[in-house]
Amino acid sequence: MSILLDSPTGHAVDIGCGGGIYTRALTSLGFDTVTGVDSSLPILEVAKQLHPTLPFHHGQAEATGLASGHYSLVYCRALIHHLNEVEPFLSEAFRLLENDGQLIVQDRTSEDCFLQGSPSHIRGYYYNLFPHLQEIERKRRPTIQMLSSTIIRSGYEVERVETFWETRQTSSKQHFLQEIRARTGRSILHALSDHELNKLIAYLDQQIQDEFIEETDRWTIWVARK
Questions:
Q1: How many domains does one find in the chain?
Q2: Does some domain include residue 127?
Q3: Where does this protein have coiled-coil stretches (predicted)?
């Protein structure tokens, strides 16, 4: 983020902030304030408890209720694929941004998800074993070109689009498989029955030989300007 941001000053907003991890991280870059926005009141209560000095606001991605033209940055991570339509969110972000403000969107695309499975890109194994999950992902994950075109149609200038690998966690294989069983932080696994989930766990246990793993995900990031 420090590389992508040309001037981390003024006010920023983190839409779909969840527990506020990235809201706090953005604050450390030099913004005067960073406001976290989420549609879930229970999640916001957790965020407020974890980060009591940060401002959090209840609102929808498409209608935040925040002031127009007030923000130098609108940031969203892992939000796009949860929206039925992307355009209303992009219009709201455009309204929030000051002239020359930046929009940064981070999400996984179809291209990111369907990379070959490996001990580092474990998500790829899901689709190896259950190809029907690919159709679910295609419906909610845009391609890089699709989202780029949508951002441009919404009035922005797309300055750069990049992919990068992010370490999700380093843990024991046993801990990882427990998370899979609980479907923790992996919404796609809710599309599997309990029987299918057990089959996936056995498959992953077979594919991953090391007792400690570094789980990584590839993301795409768009940097656009109003």
A1: 1
A2: no
A3: none
